[in-house]
């Protein structure tokens, strides 16, 4: 089964980081949206519907942002799929466009996380979000230790993911961190869950990103001329916990999400030129690349060490800096990945541009439960 691709008419983003409490979720969503609308050259009257991904935005966050934008009366839907929320919003917009329900839509990913942990208040041990955060660090630490044992990988090879992604983000004006870090800094950083340290973990972030997506008929209305409008061919979505027996790094859910995206798009792993990967922890980038079939099983750490996933390498991964360095405002991440791919496919990424990029993949994974490989996973495939 194939669906018509959605076309990216506009992309916008604000810098990720830690904003003062006076900067609200609505402020961030509005700023990113207006940037995307200007980029697309559309008027508010052109927008048929709004799709919003967020996790901690509260009731009807999407409607609040739409009202700020002057889009009252449009259909607005909110999508909460934890780290995959923004990408899920893109998926639902793509399906709606392919079904002919709308011609031009606005997709927003937004999150204000620092307000939840500000003021030096320790998380409530009975708070589910805090508990999940602890489980995530511990789970990925076990993943790293098992990977090192099974594939003769070193701590330094895993740490090299953070070094690479921080080096990429130096060229990204929207990244939370824009300075290089050394291998020694990563290996000797404050321990979080052995063998992972602070710089192996994505930060608490605020931010927003937005896309204007359209159907071919909508693109005719916009009259963009010869401008490149990248295509969203597919957004595969797999949800539900899957038992992994004795292999914590099996990444069966990644494999299935990848297979779904390959089938829907007609594009395969060998066709991908650039990847935006959900690197919430350093080891996550490695095992998920392998799970998707982009890197041979057991070779991801070696690929990183050899520079094959760096800019100029065989398969550049996270030229934006990824979650580790661009930042990870959870509801915004999936849309930010698609914005980065849009800029890459338009050849507008500046110093982080992947030369000759024509196809890209973005992967998000959210809500994994300890002892299982599951949650909600999205795999987005784009081309120019």
UniProtKB/TrEMBL annotation:
The keyword Transport applies. Its EC number is 2.3.1.176. Coiled coil: none annotated. It comes from Rhodococcus opacus (Nocardia opaca). This is propanoyl-CoA C-acyltransferase. InterPro entries: Thiolase, Thiolase-like, Thiolase_C_2, Thiolase_CS, Thiolase_N. Gene3D superfamilies: 3.40.47.10. Residues 8-215 form the Thiolase N-terminal domain. Keywords: Lipid transport, Lipid-binding, Plasmid, Transferase, Transport. One of its GO terms (biological process) is lipid transport. GO terms for molecular function: acyltransferase activity, transferring groups other than amino-acyl groups; lipid binding. It comes from the Bacteria. Residues 247-370 form the Thiolase C-terminal domain. The keyword Transport applies.
